[in-house]
Amino acid sequence: GAGVSQTPSNKVTEKGKYVELRCDPISGHTALYWYRQSLGQGPEFLIYFQGTGAADDSGLPNDRFFAVRPEGSVSTLKIQRTERGDSAVYLCASSLFGGALYNEQFFGPGTRLTVL
Amino acid sequence: DAKTTQPPSMDCAEGRAANLPCNHSTISGNEYVYWYRQIHSQGPQYIIHGLKNNETNEMASLIITEDRKSSTLILPHATLRDTAVYYCIVRVSETQGGSEKLVFGKGTKLTVNP
Fold first, then answer.
1. How many percent of chain B have pLDDT more than 70?
2. Which of A49, B1, B19, B23 could be a cystine partner for B5, CB 3.0 to 4.6 Å?
3. Which residue of A has its CA nearest to B44?
4. What is the least distance, in Å, from the CA of B72 to any CA of chain A?
């Protein structure tokens, strides 16, 4: 079946611009996660949705970052007033449900964001 | 979540077993050990998880010491396609007072050589 998909695969923007990154989770998965990965580092957690609500947004670095999942499926990560330090690969993952004793997360290929 | 320690890099000959160690000396009783890997330019991929007992699936085996302070991921017959960064993560679920997020370290860069 289809895995997690993310669009665009690459995004180049200028400092100060607004960007939106989209994630399509695996059908039927209720939990969705956003991570970002800088060069040479492991992925870093940003936010976790259970259904439509953000259950844990403790990883969002500041108020320029916002994510939504209005219908409990597709999610959009929104970054306002982008800065060069926001350049990274943004990864989305989904799992069947959150809160299980153990929980396999399925990752998408990521969106590479470059802020010039 | 407990922290994990992994060697930054390892090499393995194609066809041989790759044994990747992970130290998690501060692991708590209800934390699971997970292994993910990330092939270049792809998202991380789940490999295996375990709590106390050794586990095996079609990809790998996971050996957890009796005191649970360390574990070893074993790829029994490594291929060139197994070249990747391997991450060892310990986590307890949200319903048990933990978090749903995965906390990645820098992992071990495994290079399988022909």
1. 98
2. B23
3. A107
4. 19
For testing contact with chain A, the best of B94, B95, B108 (most A CBs within 10 A): B94
Query: Are A4 and B96 in contact (CB < 8 Å)?
Result: no
Question: For the segment A56-109, what is each residue's pLDDT rounded down to a tens digit?
Answer: 999 999 999 999 999 999 999 999 999 999 999 999 999 987 766 667 899 999
Mutate to test the interface with A, among B102, B106, B108 (most CBs of A within 10 A): B102
Q: Coil, helix or strand for A86? A: helix
Structure-block tokens of residue B32: 């699971």
Q: Which amino acid is at A13?
A: T
A55 is written with which tokens?
């259950």
Q: Do B44 and A107 touch (CB under 8 A)?
A: yes
